[in-house]
Design brief:
This protein is mainly beta. Helix content is 0%, strand content 48%. InterPro entries: FG-GAP (IPR013517), Integrin_alpha_N (IPR028994).
């Protein structure tokens, strides 16, 4: 079982974060909302810009690093439920200079953003989970040398409202990444820009996590789905089956029903055994105490996956008021200490936390 050292980096209540070298000194820094925290100890924080607080939330549900303007410095891609646009913050390259925010393009009420290089260009495209709009993605416009120009093109690939939940999975096993939504999946065509993509309405996941994960859970060669109830109890996986007539059907399995508000999740080899584990946790006060289980304890967890069985391990658990952490809306995993294990940066309304992964043999003081 893995051991972790927990550190609370800040009381700031932003729900998204990322890790990248902000100031170009070769050391990874942590970004979360209005601040970045200088590595390697993440004690000194610097203001990025002012971010509005709206009804108990912040207008920032993503802090993804991307060099948008081609100047060699990582900028930040962001969006929120209220902004009705994808935006980017320009890294000025000067520590005490505030970052300017610009529009990348319009979108609807967005739960968060996810990123995938859908066309193999080497730069990930931006996929908003805009719940009341058809699925789309934004492509960074680059110059002849392949550098970003600060401009984006929006490509609509869906024809119906996306719903709550979105992820990437090669559903039909043809080597092309498809887009999974609340009520089905969009099949990527030969040309990803030739929309709309064909929509297969094959299930209804309810208000699902972002992301919905594609993974062969039971080892039968078919891509299954892992998702959480973002605003209710439950963590589940959907088994893909092919009937005798060749038709695809889905069988729902329960991973657990004890936890609620599983909003963000990742598949990663967190224990170094060469196999992927599921890492997730509760988003604290996802609907400002309006969700089932909102007043239950929060926590971070990882699950070992073995032929359809999920073995749960607790990273942190308890009451937010007493210092426990959940997963926020966009947590980040990266080896920050250089010991070969993935650490976890966990933002949320309970504060910003760092879980240093000490491996399975070390002691733990947190």
């Amino acid at each position: 079982m893995l051991k972790f050292r927990k550190r609370k980096l800040s009381d700031e209540r932003f729900e998204a974060c990322s890790v990248f070298d902000v100031n170009g000194d070769g050391v990874m820094d942590i970004v979360s909302g209005a601040y970045w925290y200088e590595g390697p100890d993440y004690v000194k924080k610097h203001r990025i810009c002012d971010i509005a607080e709206i009804d108990g939330y912040h207008d920032d549900f993503c802090d993804y690093p991307l060099d948008v303007d081609g100047d060699g410095r990582m900028d930040i891609i962001t969006a929120s439920f209220w902004s009705l646009s994808v935006r980017w913050r320009r890294n000025p390259g000067e520590t005490e200079t505030l970052w300017e925010t610009a529009e990348a393009g319009p979108t609807g009420h967005t739960e968060t953003l996810r990123f995938y290089d859908i066309d193999g260009c080497g730069i990930p495209e931006i996929f908003p989970n805009a719940i009341d709009e058809p699925q789309a993605f934004f492509k960074l416009v680059c110059d002849a040398s392949g550098k970003g120009t600060g401009q984006f093109t929006k490509i609509v690939i869906g024809s119906e409202h996306a719903g709550h939940g979105m992820g990437f999975a090669d559903i039909n096993g043809n080597g092309k990444m498809d887009i999974v939504l609340q009520k089905g999946w969009l099949e990527q065509p030969e040309d990803p820009y030739a929309g709309p993509w064909v929509f297969h309405q094959e299930f209804d996941l309810g208000a699902a996590s972002i992301p919905i994960l594609g993974y062969d859970v039971n080892g039968d060669g078919l891509c299954d789905l892992i998702y959480g109830a973002a605003h209710d109890y439950g963590l589940f996986w959907m088994e893909q089956q092919i009937g005798a007539d060749g038709a695809r059907v889905w069988k729902k399995h329960v991973i657990e029903l004890d936890g609620s508000q599983f909003h963000d999740m990742q598949l990663a080899d967190i224990d170094g055994d060469g196999q992927l584990e599921l890492v997730t946790g509760k988003r604290y006060r996802a609907h400002n105490d309006g969700d089932p289980g909102a007043f239950d304890p929060i926590g971070m967890y990882y699950y070992r996956i073995d032929q359809g069985r999920f073995e749960k391990h607790v990273i942190d658990f308890g009451n937010a008021e007493e210092g426990a952490s959940g997963a926020g809306i966009y947590f980040w995993m990266q080896d920050l200490t250089g010991n070969g294990y993935l650490d976890i940066v966990a933002p949320g309304k309970e504060g910003l936390f760092l879980f240093e992964n000490l491996g399975s043999e070390a002691g733990c003081d947190g």
